[in-house]
Design a protein that fits this description.
With about 325 residues, the chain is α/β, with parallel strands linked by helices. Helix content is about 45%, strand content about 15%.
């Protein structure tokens, strides 16, 4: 019997990272699982390594498709998964020893539609770990579920960021299948949030396991750090999608998430060292995006609570179509470069 199907998209991952990921799966004691490693147009070296694991361990199943993106790859995994639950792993991450036995034991205790646990984000010089609560929760109550839902859209603290990502979770497959819940392949950013929110609307019971079982590697080639020319527009697309599927619930949080992506776009695009456009061109584009109807409609309802004073001031300026501070930030960045 397959209790959990783990879906691992593979594309453009170093052999060292991929080997560590697959090795952490191979060394799991449980046999009530399967590992769907899916080439998303991966290199020959990546494919050979995946096939090697599939050859030596029958729990590994290797699938291939042409490069279509992580959402399409995960969707292929969902359609081919045979487990009662589905879980996702990124190919440059890894899981803790005996993770699957721990999860299955918790699943048998709770029988929840969704189970989630803590994740450590590992960087070169530091490690940050989420913490939804100080103890395991067999069934989230109404307030805890509301808190989870809110943190899918926007979180004020890194500690409570776990609802917004797809990893570190097990979803009952029939919930996804019966409600036709898949990843939105048109989105380049935020597909995790949209998927989680869509699933959570159909989920009746959720459980939290107070264990750190997943390790997410943060490095220069991570998607969240890679130069992305259209990052702001792509981010607004997923936020607008969240606004639609939430029926305009949490408009204040949606507005704050749009503001957050405004700042993130500086790192990923407008002031990224790989951006070869002139300074004036970049600033004009950012100003144009900040004054666009889509962005203005999203930040309209954003409140000023629980954000730093400088952001409060800048949010007020943006709402009133005042953008001189964008140039100040840009000049400051150039001087400190």
């Amino acid at each position: 019997m397959i209790k959990i199907s783990f879906i691992i998209p593979v594309y453009n991952i170093s052999s060292e990272f991929l080997h560590q990921c697959l090795n952490s799966l191979r060394h799991q004691e449980s046999q009530e699982c399967e590992f769907l490693i899916i080439s998303d147009g991966a290199s020959i070296n990546e494919i050979e390594l995946c096939k090697e694991f599939a050859k030596i361990d029958s729990r590994f199943i290797f699938l291939e498709q042409k490069h279509s993106g992580v959402s399409a790859t995960r969707n292929l995994g969902i359609k081919n998964a045979r487990g009662e639950y589905i879980s996702f792993i990124d190919a440059d991450d890894w899981i803790a020893k005996n993770t699957i036995n721990i999860l299955i034991s918790f699943i048998e205790k709770t029988n929840s539609d969704l189970i989630f646990w803590d994740c450590s984000f590992v960087e070169t010089k530091r490690t940050l770990t989420t913490s939804f609560a100080n103890y395991s929760i067999l069934k989230l109550n109404r307030d805890e579920s509301e808190f989870f839902q809110q943190n899918i859209i926007h979180h004020n603290s890194f500690l409570t960021s776990i609802p917004s990502i797809t990893v570190s979770k097990c979803y009952k497959k029939y919930i996804l299948s019966e409600n036709h819940i898949l990843f939105d392949e048109s989105l380049k950013f935020g597909e995790d949030r949209v998927f989680n929110y869509s699933a959570f609307l159909k989920i009746k019971t959720t459980s939290y396991l107070k264990e750190t079982l997943y390790f997410c590697r943060r490095h220069s080639e991570s998607t969240t750090r890679r130069y992305t020319p259209n990052s702001f527009s792509q981010s607004l697309a997923y936020i607008d999608r969240l606004k639609t599927i939430s029926n305009d619930k949490y408009l204040d949080l949606i507005g704050l998430e749009a503001l957050n992506e405004f700042y993130t776009s500086w790192q990923l695009c407008y002031m990224n060292k790989e951006n070869k456009e002139s300074f004036f061109s970049r600033m004009k584009k950012l100003k144009s995006k900040a004054l666009s109807d889509k962005f203005q409609n999203l930040i309209f309802y954003a409140n000023y609570e629980n954000i730093p004073l400088l952001q409060k001031i800048e949010l007020w300026l943006l709402k009133h179509h005042i953008t001189f501070f964008i140039w100040i930030h840009g000049i400051k960045h150039l001087l400190l470069k």
